[in-house]
């Protein structure tokens, strides 16, 4: 601004008198403004750097001496601070909150609504997604049902993805869809602790009160993700072939296709594989979506050409970041019945699997046929849920004594109403965390 200001008649006159020539007349103001601006630049540089130093030292004085040189090294400090902040300062011992994605495709509308009902708790967050293969009417029906429900609309914690994604089975669009939901959940209700990705053919085996009760006791940085680096047959079937998912660029749904060229196994990072079902922490989701580290992005682009990327993307990212690998618990929290050897699809679970499901102590199971009678048995015997009703929980007692609109949290663990499901889940989780060599068995 100073530079463009015309010289005042006084100075111009004086310069004119002193120098006489045109160049001389401009020399003094020009020199002055150059001096002034370089002074300003120097000053601003000095102040901003000293402020940056002050800022980076002030939050964690103890870490000041180890001021990290690389951005990645700041992760751990950030994580510790976020860990407390994400749950609004409610650390271990407080009641956590869970963010769910429940997704489905054409014809899944009713099953999705049922799974949502069975999973519902007013302090959690839910994103429901019917992919583009589902007709617009089905998506509109789902949105209308959510809007019309007095409980969902009272707590406003169920979001329907209206601009749906085209999701190709086994394609990278599945991971893109999961990341999309995670991003919505970060924006909509930042104060959740864990993210769980389910489909319309999943169903819970414990109540949300059971789940929240058991999770209250856990460190908030544990990521439940089944994984291994022993990729075995997948090296030739998955890592080397290159696929293209038309869902990334086409409006019409069609299957993934293979190109003839093969690629070699990555050397820039190590591949991990495992179950597509997981429970991930807020910090890790933030790292994947908002992170400044480039690994989540490069690995995502790598997996764009990888068959069944949901079975590898998060596993490979989490195990290649030193700050996160020790947070992994090698379990997917699901009861899934595979053939031996496993085929592409698991068995549909029926009444015959009921005891197996209960004895697995897992909080979720898949995959269920629509309206299979075993779901009614789960409702009756495990969840205490009436058809189309909610699963009973401490929140119902709380609501009778207070009037809440909008966001709702259960503050105290004593206000939850855990049942036998909590005992089963506790057994599973304790077993996992006290396993021999737990500390040395991450990402092997
Ligand atoms: C997330 O959920 C969908 C279910 O619709 C599933 O197919 C997918 O593999 C899951 N996992 C990931 C990592 O996206
Ligand atoms: C993770 O655990 C291993 C084994 O206990 C340990 O050597 C390593 O330092 C830990 N890494 C981090 C980042 O804490
Ligand atoms: C809460 O109040 C409703 C009626 O307003 C009643 O039907 C229900 O039994 C009450 N629940 C509890 C747990 O007291």
Automatic annotation (TrEMBL):
Main location: membrane
Keyword check for Glycosyltransferase: yes
Location of this chain's protein in the cell: Membrane
Gene Ontology, cellular component aspect: membrane
InterPro entries, A to Z: GLCAT14A/B/C, Glyco_trans_14
Transmembrane stretches, start-end: 26-47
Keyword tags: Glycoprotein, Glycosyltransferase, Membrane, Transferase, Transmembrane, Transmembrane helix
GO function terms (MF aspect): glucuronosyltransferase activity
Membrane topology of this protein: Single-pass type II membrane protein
PANTHER family linked to this entry: BETA-GLUCURONOSYLTRANSFERASE GLCAT14B-LIKE (PTHR45719:SF5), GLYCOSYLTRANSFERASE (PTHR45719)
Record protein name field: BGGP Beta-1-3-galactosyl-O-glycosyl-glycoprotein
Species whose genome carries this gene: Oryza nivara
Organism placement in taxonomy: Eukaryota, Viridiplantae, Streptophyta, Embryophyta, Tracheophyta
